[in-house]
Amino acid sequence: MMRYRLRGIALHAALVLALLVFMFPFVWTIIMASNTTADIYRFPPKFTFGGHFGDNVRHVLDNVAFFQSMANTATVAISTTLLVLFFDSLAAFTFAKFRFPGRNALFVVLLATMLLPAQLAAVPQFQTMALLGWVGSLKALIIPGAANAFGIFWMRQYFQNSIHDELIEAATLDGCGFFGTYWHVALPSARPALAFLGIFTFVGSWNDYMWPLIVLTNPDHVTLQVALSTLNRSHGVDYSMVMTGALMAMVPLVIIFGIFARQFIKGATEGAVRG
């Protein structure tokens, strides 16, 4: 009994230590955002919260069109997430439960695209956006991100294990076509997986920097990450202002994760067990 108790104490101590390690960057960001740049450079470092957070927020708002950039980012992130949830789940359901010629070969090609770095597609993707006349528009961010290989792979694994073939046959006998079976049978059973994919996609779209920096030539359409990068001045960096901007950009993500955390964790753990 004592051995199991000691093992439990050691496990909880390790979890607490891991929590402290992972939480330190966030706490340090808040500390830097509430102090001045001079306090950040001070040695030994200052590990207490300061009283300059309000001033730093005003400096960020004076130097960056923060709320306009946040609205652009929210538009892109929400639109991309909804499109990914629809197209990826629809394609995954097709791969998982319907047989058609070349299905396995097509899925292998789809998985192979996951091995290619995103930077490799930047030039041809930009040329495509230029031909369509979308350079500088938010459509250049939303449409290319409307589907991805990871989401299809993730949802396919979930559908294969969560939906039995007998259920598909019963829905077909009841008069459901392909889309009816997808909408009334597949989606209700895949809510945890959809929540995981939705949060994963939203966070990735919200934090995306490289592609918006390349394709958004219109200053009125820049996203939040691109706008915040302008705080890094060539003659010097006000780190307190940069950290304040990063903290402000992080708040919507924390709220979204807080709302959908239960479904996110459920989807992740079920996918780990079933996949």
TrEMBL record:
One of its GO terms (cellular component) is plasma membrane. GO terms for biological process: transmembrane transport. The keyword DNA-binding does not apply. InterPro entries: MetI-like, MetI-like_sf. The chain crosses the membrane at residues 74-93, 105-123, 129-154, 193-214, 239-261. It comes from the Bacteria. It is found in: Cell membrane. It is a multi-pass membrane protein. Keywords: Cell membrane, Membrane, Transmembrane, Transmembrane helix, Transport. Residues 70-260 form the ABC transmembrane type-1 domain. The keyword Secreted does not apply. Belongs to the binding-protein-dependent transport system permease family. This is Carbohydrate ABC transporter permease. The lineage of its organism: Bacteria, Bacillati, Actinomycetota, Actinomycetes, Propionibacteriales.
